[in-house]
Amino acid sequence: MTMPVASVAKCKTPAAEHKTAEAKHKTIDIVQERGQREVFCGLTGIVWLHRRMQDAFFLVVGSRTCAHLLQSAAGVMIFAEPRFGTAILDDRDLSGSADFNDELERIVNDLVVRRPEIKTLFLVGSCPSEVIKLDLEKAAERLNKIHPLRVLSFSGSGIETTFTQGEDNCLKALIADMVQGSPAGDDDVAFSRPCELLVLGTVADVVEDQFTRLLQAMGINSVAFLPTRSASRLPLIDQNTKVVLVQPFVGESLRELTRHGLQHIQTVFPFGAEGTLRWLKAIADAFDIDSQHFDRVVEAPLSRARTAMKKVAEPLQGRRVSFFPDSQLEIPMARFLYEECGMQPVEIGVPFFDRQCIGAELDLLPDNIRFVEGQHVDEQLARLHQDQPDLTVCGMGLGNPLEAQGLATKWSIELVFSPIHGFEQAADLAALFVKPLKRRQLLKVPA
Prior knowledge:
By secondary structure, this protein is an alpha/beta fold. Helix content is 43%, strand content 15%.
């Protein structure tokens, strides 16, 4: 194995039992497609996870393709050494002539010497490492006994997954560590007692600060976010801890928490002014917070958000939008555009339906939408050209060809990288969808 900086591959559909929600939601007709797909792999999640957890390092055990893809996705990062890399599998590894554990130990030794500030090391499985059956979980256990840092493992393989599921797998590894109680024995823990509320899913630091202030003003003082800014400062949880989602692609992590007794607050996601209001109201109701007190807390930011939305979202009114399956954000974004921007969703494609996560969002969408689970690119492209929507939200690989064919597009991956949650970002979120329409208008040649 050798080690330069790294990255990405392809995508998976969860089992049928994962589509069972905790609460009853309206029934919708879903078209299931299985065919050629256009999507990144779970390694992509490292790009935002390594920025979020600033004392963690992500070591991908994979091929040169993984390394090149991660480097391309994350950028060159000239001014800061990134906290991710790839232990590249070469011919000796594939033939079995090199001892996997010895090679990995050598690389980790070099990493620990070079980056002593790293407190948590994630060993990340890839398509190549999983195909040749390398046991990274056992390797992590072994390295934990050798080095004075926490070593965890998770799968970033893209054989059958969508790219945001890499975060879900990473959070599951952290949750397993939390449930086993290791954070409580750490000298540097964030909580001396279990938190009241756990917010699950990656958000920008500024969004965490905004939500924390609002929740504390409501009277919920013990709030934790997962992933944390420091991977070595994990919150304590118990059966009295309530969990709420801020991202729709962390369903497996949610189920892991509920299996250990945490109470799930089912609600929409905090996208837009009304979505954020509903999200906070569901939390307030779960904690029996007085409604008049709640109204006083949210009055000012809600007013700012609604005023800003009116100024920005007007060009979206009455426009038609279609979504290609990519990040699992498709349904929450469709709800936001329909409810708060006046757009009409034509088709919503998602990698898979996880009703436990998005059931509340579905209840707010109209019935005349075509829902598609999975992907068959050729058939979806044919429907798109027949529908001729005003805006198509899709992956990067489809964006430029569709633009060349006269269709306005929005790269869906930008919704993962941008701060779009909460009251203060509501207008910014709408502006992301306005921009491609304005660009196409400016580029239109007069007849």
